[in-house]
Amino acid sequence: MLVSRSLCLLQSTPIFSNKSLLPHKFTKFNKKLSTFSPSLKWRVVRKKGMLLSVNAVSAEDFPENPMKRVRIVLHPTSLPGNYAIDDLGDKVFKFLDWIHHFGCSVWQVLSLVPLGRKADEEGSPHCGQDANCGSTLLISLEELVKDGMQSELCLKLLQVSKPNKAEIYGYQENKGEDDDWDGEIDDEPAPPSHIVLVQGPPNVGKSLLIKSLFKHFTEQHMIDDIQGPITIRTGDKRKRLQFEECPDDINGMIDAAKYADLVLSLVDARNFRVLSLLRVHGLPKVMGVLTHLDQFKDETELTKTIEHLQDHFQTEICEGATIFHLSCLNDYELYKMLEVQKLAEAISMLRFRTPSWRAEHPYVLVDRFEDVTPPEKLHKDANCKRIIGLCGHLRGCNIKSGSKVHLAGVGDFRLDGVRSTADPSPLSSEMEKENDFFEPPHMKKKRFRTGTYIRLEVHDVPFSIVENFDPCHPILVGGINHEEDNVGCMQARLKRHDWHMKLLKSEDPTTVSAGWRRYQTIPIYAMELDTKQHESAKYIPQYEHCLAMFWGPLAPPHTRIAVVQGNKEVFRIRATAVVLDPKHHSKIVKESKLKGKPHKIRGRRAPIKFTPDTDVDKVIGASIRTWTEIRGKVDEATKKEGIAKCTFKSKIDFHDTVIMPVFRQVEAPRVHYPLAALEPHDYIVPVNKDSLKQGDPAAHRQLRLAQQRLSAEDFAVNVGEDLPENYGDWFPEKDIKDKRRAGILLHPTSLHGNYGIGDLGDDVFNFLDWLHHSGCSVWQVLPLVPPGRKANEEGSPYSGQDANCGNTLLISLEELVKDGLLNKDELPKPMDAERVKFEAVASVKEPLIAKAAERLMLSEGELKKQLEEFRKDPEISGWLEDAAYFAAIDNSLNTFTWNEWPEPLKNRHIVALEGIYETERDFINNFIAQQFLFQRQWHKVRKYAQSKGIRIMGDMPIYVGYHSADVWANKKQFLLNRSGFPVLVSGVPPDAFSETGQLWDSPLYDWKAMEAVGFSWWVQRIRRAHDLYDEFRIDHFRGFAGFWAAGPKKALFDAIFKSVGKIDIVAEDLGVITEDVVQLRKAIGAPGMAVLQFGFGGDSENPHLLHNHESDQVAYTGTHDNDTVRGWWENLKQEEKSSVLKYLAIGEEGDISWTLIRVLLSSVARTAIIPMQDILSLGSSARMNVPATQFGNWSWRLPSSLSFDDLEPEAKKLRDILLLANCPTTKT
């Protein structure tokens, strides 16, 4: 039957009947699986954290491309039947006919074994008693009648009363629990008890002091030893005090400093170590208590000791800090009640304050601990995950069920239950009634206020917290805000502690206490230079602040940090720090000097061999000097490895040593290890220095398992049981590049601006705020180069005169006013223009930008220093000087192309260029200053985007214009004849954009010549793009693989990756794409493109149709060369519209732009980009460019009447779609 219908029957087969083993144990079963079929595959089916089954599927039953086969998943019991369950009768055959008619070729069923019969598994096809038998309930009674094995009378009796399916299997309705808070809050509770921490070294009298204060407040003697916190009411019954003895280990001290409201510091001249922790975590009230003074026999020595301790204490806390004396014991072996009374009165009159950081986080100091794990689970496995109940007063801010919290020394958990319960020490005379039941799942959630005595229930806690529970060691539960739930790189302002005598060394693993957490990490230290740069420092001085960069759980800005070093024997505060705002993060660089000697000297040029060996391609354009201060720069690499051709301002000698200063950016190692303190409480996991530095994932997992004392047996679970907490550690973490994301295509010129064009002023920051609010994480722009100025290319960012310069028309005049380079009254009147008129904009903005640049060059402030650094930057000076000279010559001669210039200038004779510098010096310097102003404003925009979690995707044309500084300065690397004219020019054949093709007139590259010099021009261009963007698209990527002339293929990208490092590239692979293009794209790991508008033409194999998209693609509704979605739709013929509607299964009503946006965001492509015009549902008049046309392009702008505040509905709509499409959003 199945063969005749060309159907494939796919059965879900449970491999293991009792234990389901996880993937790390599947290696043992590969041989078993292979016995079924040589090509057998397996996969784990997971749902809501439960291990359901292991499905064995034979690859021989699948076609070559399983994505092209449609499967119907339906178990036979779900089909309609005469006896409350379907069977293998007529209905099955009708269903198979329907599948065949529908066009499907696979029917997937669940396991056909006998169904489970136990109460907790009744009806389950995956809980059968036999792995090979079939379910007899599926036998058709009608088929038995046909076979003569059953009478028709029996069938009629069965049909009299049909039980429903719930009665057969015992199904019960499972009402889901609504986790959303409906706004209901508890009544205002009494304020929580104030935590009084009694701290001091061993045998100083901490317990004795607590007993004495207990006697004073309660007029009762404490008989038992102190075990855990003690809560009492003061005499006026309006204040509660909770006394806690501070543990004498590093973990206890760190935690105690985070929850104490008052510290009674018992001093015997030995101990001040916890005071530094208190200062770091928000200094509470501190009172000093001097004890053991009665042991002094000499009054003079006693007086000197008291003065010394008072001075020391007030130095640590503040001038005039309160300090009390306790000297003698009374008959009850307590301190004298008169001395205790003074201390108690001071405590009672004290006005407590909560540090701001604590006030923003909910936290509970646990005073009651319960292990509520079911006994049957404990009997089965004594080391199983536990369910615990934690009681205490809620402090800080409100909390609700489902919140994420951190158990100090244990880890992060979700609260599975929160409820109020009877306060064991209420302020009122009437005892509160205890609410001994949890809220039913269908009841509305409540948020609990500060001061409420609550009970927290936490599941899946390691058994060690129960086995090693010590009532003298407090348990702190701290709430975690959303922004603290991520891991990343942080920078902090750090100072070495005065008492820590050893130097702090970069990349030396250390323990950090930040917020509620403590973990080990590897910091990088840096000192600020006079140039405001931060240079990596091997050691940091004792009395100076420095910048520290490290990896760990993110903490909000201004969070204080303690850097500690400790174990059971030694505890030291190494340093204190405060987290800096990520908006103001600094780049940390490390300087090194390369030394070289000349090989040959030809006038002012000489090849230099630098040591240590360096990749010359990375330092082309770098500034160099000799010991005699003769300066020069690196021109290009030679054929001999490690030797660079250099030009100096004057001739050098063979004995001269050439120095090249090189700055390299330093990154913090991306590793951190949470610290647990479960067994024993002073246990600190030792730092594995080697594995920390290597960042080995296997070492990460091994250390985490060692910390939590987990064995391999903890990962074996019964069918239907919850997965282990660390189940995910056995699978590779998903790379951030594999996560789906969405973005907006909008060129800066299209933004609002007062002078006829969008700029890098306030509106770009408003757009980034809107983009962040909408949930998008990518902003794509067109090339930022100076646009074309010729009549046939006006405004085109793809026809610029330089591949590396920035478009100075984007410079914001208002930002120049803020920098003091322009006066406010010098600004022109705003231009009310709906489209960009580039000539008009240039006539207004260019004179003012030039004036600002001139003032900058004449200034002596910080900006002038930054300009000089920009000019000397070896990664910039190489192309910047060429561009400045080219612009100066072009401005003075005003010819059509550089090939019309005089011979000396056309061929870059040194004497001619020196003459140009003498005559056009002001123009050249002004040009460089303008590029600095553009760079400064753009980097400000990019940093703001990074702070919002937004990546900027740039755009790079594969070719450059003939009349450009790039071709003029690098003629040998282009296919030019002896006269300097192109031998071949670029273009494209007829395609979807032009029936006659396009001719661009850009010269082709001489790839062989480029390869001979290590593709240095391309390396420099890519490095510049890497400085401007987080990632970028390369237009017409197929040109690298081949065209009518040979392409460089992978050799180019090997050179780029070797020099620049791994970069994120998007390959524009539209049009006719051959196999070599696909292979090159995949070889370098660059995603391709898919355009939804292109999909609705041709057959079902069209690669742009949604079902043909691939994950390594960037999907668009349309690009800058396409019409808007609305314009495209309005220009379609009726039969084409019908085809689109039929594919999308929608009606013609509704907004077609947002319909395609929803469709696009359901694509499997990891990145989806939407032009801003489609967000606004604009028509063809908003189109950015019409290929193969010369006029009216690149000028579209956002409507002036529309602000980003007006686009809040669109932002919400887009964010909702992204959440449904499972795209992580930037909205917090």
Structure write-up:
This is 4-alpha-glucanotransferase. Keywords: Carbohydrate metabolism, Glycosyltransferase, Transferase. By secondary structure, the chain is an alpha/beta fold. Among the domains are: 194-353, P-loop containing nucleotide triphosphate hydrolases (Rossmann fold, 3-Layer(aba) Sandwich); 360-434 and 444-471, Elongation Factor Tu (Ef-tu), domain 3 (Beta Barrel), CATH 2.40.30; 487-586, Translation factors (Elongation Factor Tu (Ef-tu), domain 3); 589-665, Thrombin, subunit H (Beta Barrel). Helix content is 27%, strand content 22%. Helix 26 (1016-1028) crosses helix 27 (1050-1060).
What is the CATH C level class of the domain at 194-353, in words?
Alpha Beta
Low-confidence stretches: 1-68, 151-186, 269-274, 429-445, 678-721, 723-734
Rounded radius of gyration (Å): 37 Å
Q: Name the CATH superfamily assignment of the domain at 194-353.
A: P-loop containing nucleotide triphosphate hydrolases
Helical coverage, percent range: 25-40%
CATH topology grouping of the domain at 194-353? Rossmann fold
Q: How many helices does DSSP assign?
A: 34
Main sheet attributes: strand count, strand direction, barrel closure: 8 strands, parallel
The total of beta strands comes to 50
The rough form would be described as globular
Alpha-carbon distance between the termini? 55 Å
CATH structural architecture of the domain at 194-353: 3-Layer(aba) Sandwich
SSE-based structural type: alpha/beta
Catalytic activity: Transfers a segment of a (1->4)-alpha-D-glucan to a new position in an acceptor, which may be glucose or a (1->4)-alpha-D-glucan
Pfam family, one: Glyco_hydro_77
Organism: Papaver somniferum (Opium poppy)
GO molecular function, one term: 4-alpha-glucanotransferase activity
